[in-house]
Amino acid sequence: MLNLPANVVTGTPRIEKDRIGGDLVIVPVRPYSRDMGRCARCGEHDRPYDRLPARRWRHLDIGCTRLLLEHAPQRVDCAEHGVTVAMVPWARRQSACTRDFEQRVAWPGVHAPRSAVSRLIRVDWKSVGPICRRVADDLRSQRGAGLFDHLRSIGVDETGCRKGHTYMTVVVDHDRGHVIWMHDGRGQKVFDLFFQALTPARRESIRVVTGDGARWIDECVFRWCPMAERILDGFHIVSRATDALDKVRTAAWREARKTGTAGKGAKDPVKGARRALLKDPGRLTAGQKAQLECVANTNETLWEAYKLKERLRMILRQTAGEAAPMLRQWAADASLSGIKEFSKLGEKIDRRRFDILRTIRSGLSNARLEAVNNRIKTTIKIGYGYRNLDNLIALVMLKCGGLNLQLPGRQ
Ligand SMILES: [Zn+2]
């Protein structure tokens, strides 16, 4: 009934009062003798050193009552690690909570902001991040180096967090749709660290590297896995067009405001149409369709820019043979459109035309790459308050790293 961890010998539970008069259930526990006297860092059996005063570990609540496990831990003298507190089977090293309790915190931790988790489970909000990190480290070490086995196509991206003040480099395994590596910072030096973590055989197994058009990606791929094909991410190409379209929209709205023809706030046809313009046309609501129609009738430049963006998206869905002439035509039309943002983009796309065709030929599903990318971004938003970047990385790993995070008792 108490859902105590397996592998412990339990004594008689007792009830105590906490500082504010609430009930606490205290259960004295100890490991089985075969689990006693092990170093917490290497797990080896060691010589006993001494015994520390009793400590408590927070375990899963019983109903609304907190439950604490109580044990006076032994210290052991490890040949390698010196005098350390012995391992206890119910908790991770240097944690005041049981493994089950930590899973219980980490699971909602990847879905909800930590303030919500903190209230739901009655745990200090500052400990949510470190708990997620311990769980992620543990799950990752269970997977061992296997995380980097059989890599075939990988993607690299830099993601801004904290309103773009900090950047993270994220590496995704496209075949499994998982984040496999993440590091704070961006650029060539950071991406080098990823390749340094791989054995030469693992580097050689990589056949495809996707990413945006940044030169540092080209350089790293050339240096570390020259046999791999370097491909541009389809969604990065589309997002360039989307960014250009948004700039055209902002300019149009400013112009309308200057001439006094703008509506108020979101009611203005141009300002209010932002979502409608940027969204996939297949998923527009009736209201958004009407907004687009209004743009088509009132703002020629913006409508032209919108059509260019949609055409580019359609081209990326064609086969490479069909796309080649369409892409050339698109680049020419964009360059001559007279819209500054799209003229520039047209030239850029013309320059990287063959890279884009390679993207199409690779058959990597753009929608899937984008979905993984979006999942990473939402997780980073959830971890917005995390001061410690390692905790944030742990959060992304738990949510997008393919780690098997389960609620306690539901394996
Ligand atoms: Zn040791």
From TrEMBL:
Where does the chain cross the membrane? none
Q: Which PANTHER family match?
A: TRANSPOSASE FOR INSERTION SEQUENCE ELEMENT IS1557
Q: Where is the Transposase IS204/IS1001/IS1096/IS1165 helix-turn-helix domain?
A: 88-135
Give the highest taxon in the source lineage: Bacteria
Q: Which Pfam families match?
A: DDE_Tnp_ISL3 (PF01610), HTH_Tnp_ISL3 (PF13542)
Q: Where is the Transposase IS204/IS1001/IS1096/IS1165 DDE domain?
A: 154-394
- Under what name is this protein listed? ISL3 family transposase
> Which InterPro entries does the protein's record reference?
Transpos_ISL3 (IPR047951), Transposase_DDE (IPR002560), Transposase_HTH (IPR032877)
Query: Which species is this record about?
Result: Bifidobacterium longum subsp. infantis
